[in-house]
Design a protein that fits this description.
Layout lengths: L1 E6 L3 H16 L3 E2 L6 E6 L1 H10 L8 E6 L9 E2 L3 H13 L6 E14 L4 E6 L2 E6 L4 E7 L2 E14 L7 H4 L11 E9 L12 E4 L3 E6 L5 E5 L2 E5 L2 E17 L5 H10 L3
Parallel strand pairs: 1-2, 1-3, 3-4, 4-5, 4-16
Antiparallel strand pairs: 6-7, 6-16, 8-10, 8-14, 9-10, 9-13, 10-11, 11-12, 13-16, 14-15
Helix pairs in contact: 1-3
The protein binds NADP nicotinamide-adenine-dinucleotide phosphate and manganese (II) ion.
Pfam family, one: NAD_kinase
Main location: cytoplasm
Cofactor: a divalent metal cation
């Protein structure tokens, strides 16, 4: 079995990376950065986002596992002192097809950005994307399934996956969504409500096979952030988003239910 490692670059993560390579060699695991079966992220959830985007073109053939070197992560759920156990489990899996680990597949967001020149670019997000005004408030029209839904004015819009619902979306008062529910959630970032601009105020969860469009409704410079990646868009016409046909695969060498992770991360007890 081939593996690759991405780490946060701090001292502990670098040390663990060395240790991982050493232990992996003993288990006949092959270090292969170009086309790994398993990508190991060592750091935090942010490191997993980087790993995901590094291997975004290989989602069908690659699975991810995360070791956290800080606080408990949502994507990084193995502790630093469990590295021996993890490598051993990966080694078992390498040696016997019957010891295949459980895998879980999480939904992703598919977004298509169209500019005024009709150029379209497709992106995939693991946590969320946000759209914000750079020089002032964002002015946008939101359609759901090709029907006008609302006129938005405010700081911005956040569209998250279920596994991203515990990240930025949570700070916006959005709901925590179990990753077995293929859906996307639209949350408002400080909407302004008056007679002209009226938004729902609650966040919305859309199922698979629904889509919505965000139409830019003034000349505006916008900041489009996809997970940890920022870009400026000067001439946005619209963004179409829906649940992606692709999923991301995580290897689960042991169960760690989503609600347990929510409890441990936010309520602080195990
Ligand atoms: P960061 O500033 O380190 O991330 C902010 C926090 O979000 C970190 O504590 C990060 O954990 C955590 N996080 C990331 N994904 C998560 C998830 N799925 N569930 C729960 N917590 C999660 O920047 P970053 O590490 O590059 O991460 C980018 C993410 O930050 C974005 O995707 C967005 O969700 C989040 N963010 C949140 C806010 C906000 O809440 N106001 C604002 C901007 C961005 P680690 O420390 O383990 O990396
Ligand atoms: Mn981070």
């Amino acid at each position: 079995m081939k593996y690759a490692i991405l780490n946060r670059g701090d001292e502990l993560s670098l040390e663990l990376t060395e240790r991982f390579h050493y232990l992996a060699a003993e288990q006949q695991l092959i270090h292969h950065d170009e086309s790994p079966d398993i990508v190991v992220s060592i750091g935090g959830d942010g490191t997993m986002l980087q790993a995901f985007h590094r291997y975004i073109d290989q989602l069908n053939s690659t699975a991810f596992v995360g070791i956290h070197t800080g606080h408990l992560g949502f994507y990084a759920d193995w502790k630093a002192d469990e590295i021996e156990l993890l490598v051993q489990l990966m080694g078992n899996h390498n040696q016997a097809e019957t010891l295949q680990p459980r895998i879980v597949k999480y939904p992703l967001i598919d977004l298509i950005v169209t500019t005024h020149h009709q150029e379209t670019t497709r992106y995939t997000a693991l946590n969320e994307f946000t759209l914000k005004g750079i020089d002032g408030t964002l002015v946008a029209q939101i359609d759901i399934n090709d029907q006008l839904f609302e006129m938005f004015r405010g700081d911005g819009i956040c569209v998250s996956t279920p596994s991203g619902s515990t990240a930025y979306n949570k700070s916006l008062g959005g709901a925590m969504v179990h990753p077995s529910i293929a859906s996307i959630q639209l949350a408002e970032i400080a909407s302004i409500n008056n007679r002209v601009f009226r938004t729902l105020g609650s966040s919305l969860v859309l199922p698979k096979h629904h889509h919505f469009d965000i139409f830019s409704r003034k000349e505006q410079r916008l900041l489009l952030t996809i997970d940890h990646l920022n870009s400026t868009v000067d001439n946005l016409s619209s963004i179409r988003c829906q649940v992606s046909d692709q999923t991301v695969t995580f290897v689960r060498y042991r169960p760690f239910p989503f609600w347990n992770r929510v409890r441990e991360a936010f309520l602080g007890y195990e």
